[in-house]
Amino acid sequence: MLQTIIALLRDNPLLLLFAIAALGWALGQVSLGGIRLGVAAVLFVGLGFGALSPELRLPEAVYTLGLVIFVYALGLSSAQSFFAALRHKGLRDNALILLCLLAAAGLVVLAAGPLGLSAGSAAGLFSGALTNTPALASALEFINLNPPAGSALQTLLAEPVVAYSIAYPLGVLGMILAVYTAQRIWRIDYRAEALRAGDLAGADVELDNLTIRVTRPAALGKPLVELVKQQNWNVVFGRIQKGTQLQLAEKDSQLELGNQITVVGTPAQLQPVIAFLGERSPASLELDRREMDFRRIFVSNPQVVGRKLSQLNLPEQFGALITRIRRGDIQLIPTGNTVLELGDRVRVLTHREHMAAVSRYLGDSYRAVSEVDVLTLSLGIALGMLLGMLPFPLPGGLTLRLGMAGGPLILALILGNLARTGPLVWTIPYSTSVTLRQFGLVLFLAGVGSRAGYDFVTTLASGEGLVLLAAGLGITLFTGWLVLWTGYRLLKIPMGLLTGMLSGLQTQPALLSFVSEQSGDELPNIGYAAVYPVASIAKIILAQLVLAWLS
């Protein structure tokens, strides 16, 4: 019976692929001690199928296609937060992450000799202990492009995957252990730290809409746009009531004593606005919807995507204001520098007769945004692959290539930051990005798992498997404690933000979920987004350097 199933799967690679994907996804939803492997479980199911027979191997094109799709979609979605972080404290935070990753790579290189690890196993150990699939992919591609003479290529390609799969589970659990012990030893009060950081994120997840009565003379005689700039407010003003007249709060509007004005922001952001303007009012400034109206509009017009709100001139064109933006599950406060993306849902306030025109201008079509722009998606991936093929010479006669993991990722970061080039819109809707990343990662994990399963079982049953297991946990704990001690004790980074950065270094959503529950606020998400792209790129390059140093 078993031989019949193996023969069926061997002769039908697509059946094998979707069997691995389905079982892996189901296994990934099982919670063990509050932790789920998620999509990473596809790798272990692939290893299980591959262990049944060396013939149950998916074609190499499967995991290469999955990798390219995953990293390209990831780069597009991370671009804005990546470059925004670099403009603030991102240089300090990313420098810390880079130094700790370099230390981890150095530890792997130093330990490889005494532990008797091959170059491929060391690179896989580095990738697995730090749970980074693109780093594993870059190591495989480096071996493909630089195969040592006299060695079986298939055996060489299996070594990194086997080491990765052994180190990966404890790579997740080890970082959780490092965070748990650190917060117990240092007695972390996440709420107090968030308050000292000026960002009580747990209370600020949802935006608030309130009315302020103007009672302070300091608020008079200046346009709203000037007040916002001087006071560094990150809020949006909606409507102003002057006597019995209700009007839109435009950038050149000036306040008078007794005026009432609606404002949207997080509770922490609204407090200084109330203190400066006057006092909170119980009035809600209800709209007479026969004259003014508001509604949520779906952004689907490529002509408005990739442009700053200040360039769209909505108040001048339509007498309209955007008061909120919802992108995926996140609510954003719009500013003049905010760039709209396909799939954004915006809350528009305008005169009733203008609402239809604003809706047409922004698009408001779910169908239009569901149709992927095949031209820009394919062109971007193709250019990224070409970038990945370019050789970069290193000292000692070695050549480094970004490969199919690094090339598309770096190009996607650049294109995602540009958003558009003339008529070409590079960004993709949030929902499409999530789907592409998920699909690409499933293809990659199923492919590499099935191709290494037979060697994985053989290695795990040997003494070398136990060595890899212990070494992987050691690297994980070393890196986790290095980040936490340096960031918290030396750089005085709030623990909530720091644990998010550690999750970004680990590029591990499971760890992010754990630390978010510990902190109870949004600081981990901010730290994660700030360092994730740099950590991904660094690990892709370092995995290849580990191979180069030890080859």
Throw out a few tags for this protein.
551 residues; alpha+beta; 4-stranded antiparallel sheet; elongated
In short:
The chain has 22 helices and 13 strands. By secondary structure, it is an alpha+beta fold.
Task: Explain what you see.
The chain has helices at residues 2-11, 13-28, 41-52, 60-86, 90-115, 119-129, 133-145, 153-185, 190-196, 224-231, 267-277, 309-312, 314-318, 355-362, 366-370, 374-389, 403-418, 430-460, 463-490, 495-506, 509-519, 523-550, and strands at residues 208-214, 236-242, 245-248, 260-265, 278-281, 292-298, 321-327, 330-332, 345-351, 391-393, 399-401, 420-421, 424-425. The chain is an alpha+beta fold and 551 residues long. The strands form 4 sheets. It has a 5-stranded antiparallel beta sheet with strand order 3-2-4-1-5, with helices on one face. Strands 6-9-7-8 form a 4-stranded antiparallel beta sheet. It has a two-stranded antiparallel sheet with strand order 10-11. Strand 12 and strand 13 (424-425) form a beta hairpin. The relative contact order is 0.20. Residues 198-205 have low confidence and may be disordered.
Outline: elongated
Let me know the number of strands. Answer: 13
Largest sheet: 5 strands, antiparallel
Q: Which whole number gives the mean pLDDT?
A: 81
Strand order of the largest sheet: 3-2-4-1-5
Structural class assignment: alpha+beta
**Strand-residue proportion:** 5-15%
Stretches with pLDDT under 50, minimum 5 residues: 198-205
Helical content stands at 55-70%
- Tally of individual helices: 22
> What does the radius of gyration come to?
26 Å
How far apart the termini lie comes to: 44 Å
